[in-house]
Amino acid sequence: MTDREKRLAWFTEARFGMFIHWGIYAIPAHGEWYRSHAQVPVEAYQKYFDRFDPKACDIHQWARLAHDAGMRYMVLTAKHHDGFCLFDSKLTDYKSTNTPAGRDFIAEYVEACRDEGLKVGLYYSLLDWHHPDYPKYADKFHPMRGNEAFKDEKINFDRYLDYMHGQIEELVSNYGKIDVLWFDFSYENLSGKAWRAEELVSMVRKHQPDVILDNRLEASGEEYGGLLGPSPAPAAGDFVSPEQSLPQGCILNYEGKPVTWELCTTINNSWSYMLHDRSFKTASFLIHKLVECVSKGGNLLLDVGPDANGRIPLESVYALYQVGEWMQRNGESIYGCGPALDLPRPDWGRYTRKGNIVYGHLFEEPIGPIPLTGIDPAKIRFVSLLRDGAEAHDGSTALGARKKKDTRFVSLAASNNNTISLPDPSDTVLKIELAD
Ligand code: GLC
What is the fold, at CATH topology level, of the domain defined by 3-333? Predict the structure, then answer.
């Protein structure tokens, strides 16, 4: 096992985490890119800093929700692109402890995660639209891009990098064990060396030898960076982080070996709180996508955006509770599971696998008995429903099954030829035990 594989062991076991985008941008409620999209000058954005006081914010509730949804880790935006910090950094005044809130939310967060037994992840933006030494006029994303007032401005980018490295050092030294560091993101010539990435990673590893890193010191959410190539450098990170697009299959490196990946996606269509975005995904949809990630060897990092009062929107809370109910009964088919590489995708859903147990995720009921597609019937020891342990009876005498000797059929109906409603309409899981 490589060091990278050792570090990643808990992560591939966990499979499901909560991403949280939260900062003063929850007040304008137009998303965390608001300053850039609307090209808001820093002075005009100050009013949100001056009134940031989320009295209803109880991070223990967020962590409890993640735990109850069956998630095993969380990742919170310690600093997003607007540069506002949720922690008490000694290197800036632009931090939550200086707002009316007067709170170090990262300190509250790490404690809440640990109380709920969740691994602790921190997101840190490499971009910074507040720091005076970050490129402005010619930068593609900066709110002041193309603004003549900044055309001839002299900046000292190394001073920004010292600041960025210094803040990351604060995060990895002042808050106990950090399990995931989620950097975001590289673009154009700002990638790898330009961030002094190797130096950064060796500093991080000195304080937190086991922390796992995403790949964005070298990549964006659409690229892979060095992780897919031969002997990836430490700054290539530990896992690939596709964004808002579920990969078509396992992600393979240059030798055709699967690499560790995590899909990050939003519960509606926005990372942070967005007043007008009511397109919340249903629990059923979320369960299907979580299963799909696992069936392709990936994790799901599902994002919610608490509002300006510090509350996670009710629509998200309801959906996550339902996902949690399903996870309580069926989590065994997710945690520590991966793809069933030797089996084709069945018509009725997907397979996940752990050792000699294959989990058949029935997303929809077939008409007739259920074929255990692709599995050698001679190898099957027992088939049951994961939710209640009930035996899934033999369906091989039903119409459509009795002439097919190469496939094992099961039936959940009282009579073999009946079609039934699945006990769990989102995903009824068959536990298929195979001989060693
Ligand atoms: C992007 C966006 C961002 C979000 C992130 C999550 O790169 O810039 O707002 O934080 O993706 O993956």
Answer: TIM Barrel (3.20.20)
**Choices 2.60.40.1180, 2.30.40.10, 3.40.50.300, 3.30.70.1060: CATH for 349-434:** 2.60.40.1180
347-391 tens-digit pLDDT = 999 999 999 999 999 999 888 899 999 999 999 999 999 999 999
Q: How far apart are CA 241 and CA 158, in angstroms?
A: 27
Do residues 286 and 16 lie in contact, with contact meaning Cβ atoms separated by under 8 Å? no
pLDDT tens string 219-253: 999 999 999 999 999 999 999 999 999 999 999 99
Q: In the chain, where does the domain assigned CATH 3.20.20.80 lie?
A: 3-333
Residues whose beta carbon lies within 6 Å of some atom of ligand 1? 21, 32-33, 184-185, 221, 243, 264, 271
Ligand 1 centre distance from Cα of residue 129 (Å): 14
In the chain, list all ranges with CATH 2.60.40.1180.
349-434
